[in-house]
């Protein structure tokens, strides 16, 4: 959605994403579909190969299910470290966070700062699920086909499942964990993360 708005208005903002090495093939394929649709290059940030290989060798492919610490370690090397590289030379970023996505995101402001002091703009903060799909239909925005399979919130394949009717949007993310732990850390202020421990 953010990509569509940036491309549609020809804004001088780079498009970047994280390829964790654990994405569904549909999610990974969306990167190429977006590049084709908007005739732009998406910057793709991946985990450092040796770190990922070492982690799997030490802890196994299913480490994330065994403890919160291992799940966070996996998110750390596959998401947080690549995100730090993505943002290293940047003074601002734009996200698609929406208040409706979860209680934890219920107060997301339009304008924020991350822990490094960078401006963080949450341009879709007050968009509803209906707003998103109206925009997708109106502007023929490429979207992840997994959304059609009851996955409103999509992350890595091992940590995403379809939800049932009536479940919250993010119920399919890290479903085996307590609600309070269910963020990967990409959008958590360190102060709040410390308070929640
Ligand atoms: S979401 Fe799951 S697979 Fe992806 S980085 Fe986090 S723990 Fe690892």
What attributes does this structure have?
binds iron/sulfur cluster, mainly alpha, 3-stranded mixed beta sheet, 6 helices, 36% helix, disordered C terminus, 197 residues, two-stranded parallel ribbon
Question: What's this model, at a glance?
Answer:
This protein has 197 residues and is mainly alpha-helical. The protein is 36% helix and 9% strand.
Architecture overview:
This protein has a 3-stranded mixed β-sheet, with no helix packed on it. Strands 1-2 form a two-stranded parallel sheet. Strand 1, helix 2 (25-38) and strand 2 form a beta-alpha-beta unit. It has helices spanning 2-8, 25-38, 49-59, 68-87, 129-139, 190-196; strands at residues 16-18, 43-45, 92-95, 111-113, 119-122. Helix content is 36%, strand content 9%. Residues 193-197 have low confidence and may be disordered. It has 6 helices and 5 strands, in the order αβαβααβββαα. With 197 residues, the chain is mainly alpha-helical. Helix 3 runs antiparallel to helix 4. Iron/sulfur cluster is lined by residues 20, 22, 64, 71, 74-75, 78-79, 155-156, 158-159, 184.
Q: Are there runs of 5+ residues with pLDDT below 50, and where?
A: 193-197
- Ends apart, CA distance between termini: 33 Å
**CA radius of gyration:** 17 Å
**In order across it, which strands form the biggest sheet?**
3-5-4
The portion of residues forming beta strands comes to 5-15%
Number of distinct beta strands: 5
Number of helices in the DSSP assignment: 6
pLDDT averaged over residues: 92
The topology string of helices and strands comes to: HEHEHHEEEHH
Give the biggest sheet: 3 strands, mixed
Q: What structural category arises from helix and sheet content?
A: mainly alpha
Q: Which percent bin holds the helix content?
A: 25-40%
Q: Judging from the principal axes of the Cα atoms, what is the shape?
A: globular
The ligands found in this model are: iron/sulfur cluster
């Amino acid at each position: 959605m953010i990509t569509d708005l940036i491309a549609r208005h020809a804004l001088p903002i780079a498009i970047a994403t994280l390829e964790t090495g654990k994405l569904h093939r549909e999610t990974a394929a969306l990167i190429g579909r977006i590049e084709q649709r908007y005739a732009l290059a998406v910057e793709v940030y991946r985990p450092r190969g040796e770190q990922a290989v070492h982690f799997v060798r030490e802890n196994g492919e299913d480490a994330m299910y065994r403890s919160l610490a291992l799940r966070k370690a996996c998110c750390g090397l596959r998401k947080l470290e690549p995100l730090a590289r993505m943002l290293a030379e940047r003074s601002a970023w734009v996200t698609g966070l929406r208040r409706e996505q979860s209680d934890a995101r219920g107060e997301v402001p339009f304008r924020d700062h991350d822990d490094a002091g960078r401006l963080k703009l949450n341009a879709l903060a007050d968009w509803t699920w209906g707003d998103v799909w109206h925009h997708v239909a109106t502007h023929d925005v490429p979207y992840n086909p997994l959304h059609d399979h009851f996955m409103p919130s999509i992350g890595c394949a091992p940590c995403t499942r379809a939800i049932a009717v009536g479940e919250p949007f993010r119920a399919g993310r890290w479903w085996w964990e307590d609600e309070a732990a269910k963020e990967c850390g990409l959008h958590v202020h360190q102060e709040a993360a410390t308070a929640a421990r």
